[in-house]
Backbone:
């Protein structure tokens, strides 16, 4: 699973988003990415918002501490998590 500490203030997670799923959930590991299924469609940023909201709830942090740093219009995204290191994220994603 690709979770790497960011030198300044957190970590970066590689996420593969599956829109239009039956429920929001972690759907496993796909290659080196965490597969996140979201119910929202991939229209007007809805799937991105749903992904950020789901991860924030799962990691028990405010949505403002998550930022998509690449992959805004694709399914594979790099998401920066401010204030948590990779070990803490791995524990919460299990």
Residues:
């Amino acid at each position: 699973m690709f979770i790497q500490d960011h030198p300044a203030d957190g970590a970066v997670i590689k996420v593969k988003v599956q829109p239009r799923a039956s429920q929001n959930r972690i759907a496993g590991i796909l290659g080196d990415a965490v597969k996140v299924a979201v119910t929202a469609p991939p229209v007007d940023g809805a799937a991105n918002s749903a992904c950020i909201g789901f991860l924030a709830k799962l990691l028990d942090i405010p949505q403002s501490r998550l930022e998509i740093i690449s992959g805004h219009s694709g399914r594979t995204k790099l998401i920066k998590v401010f204030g948590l290191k990779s070990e803490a994220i791995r524990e919460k994603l299990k």
Q: What stands out?
A: The chain has a mean pLDDT of 94.
